[in-house]
Amino acid sequence: MTEDQSGSVTRLLHHWAGGDEKALGQLLPLVYNELRRVAHYHLQRERPGHSLQSTALVHEAYLRLLSNQPPELRNRVHFVAIASRLIRQILVDHAREHRAAKRDGGMRISVEHLEAIPIVGDDELLALSDALDDLYKTDERQAKIVDMKFFGGLSSPEVSEVLGLSRATVDRDWATARAWLHRHISRTDSS
Q: pLDDT band for position 154 (50/70/90)?
């Protein structure tokens, strides 16, 4: 995205947050490809043959954005982080529905190399999502970093920009969060 486009995105985000409902409609064409990239990134970690597609995820996220009060968004990267969290929630909701229909358990996931893990089934996604929800209660900043890096595909510099943290702090919190998630999920698996 060019600097001009990024500036236009930021301007439209501020207009939308200020109550201009048309601004979100003008914003979508500017960020659509990036949102599809994020949705595709999420789906690559899902089980093969997932019934949702990138386009459907982007559209559902857009509908959820429309139906809620506009969040305070600082810039394009922050918007992508919020949209990524919405996409994760859509996938989690879908997995819960799918799991409820199947009613089988067995949540096993290793988070030692979290950034390289494909989520191969609904149970793994739900286990990670539940652990991440618990991490939000324990350390919200670390949970946001996991959300943005693992689910959003954002780099450490991008996360640093969104959260206003140094790159070293992001990397340190990322390592700590992965260890916390590993312990939490291991404890859950053995229960």
A: confident
The Cα–Cα gap between 37 and 25 comes to: 19
DSSP 85-96: HHHHHHHHHHHH
Residue 19 in contact with residue 67, Cβ under 8 Å? no
What is the C-alpha to C-alpha distance for residues 75 and 161, in angstroms, rounded to an integer? Answer: 10
Measured between alpha carbons, how far apart are the two ends of the chain, in Å? 47
1-38 tens-digit pLDDT: 666 677 888 898 888 888 887 887 888 888 888 888 88
According to DSSP, residue 69 is labeled P
One-letter identity of residue 96:
R
How far apart, in whole angstroms, are the C-alpha atoms of residue 47 and residue 166? 34
DSSP helix/strand/coil, 27? helix
pTM for the full predicted model: 0.54
- Rounded to whole angstroms, the Cα distance separating 148 from 154 reads 6
84 pLDDT higher than 90: no
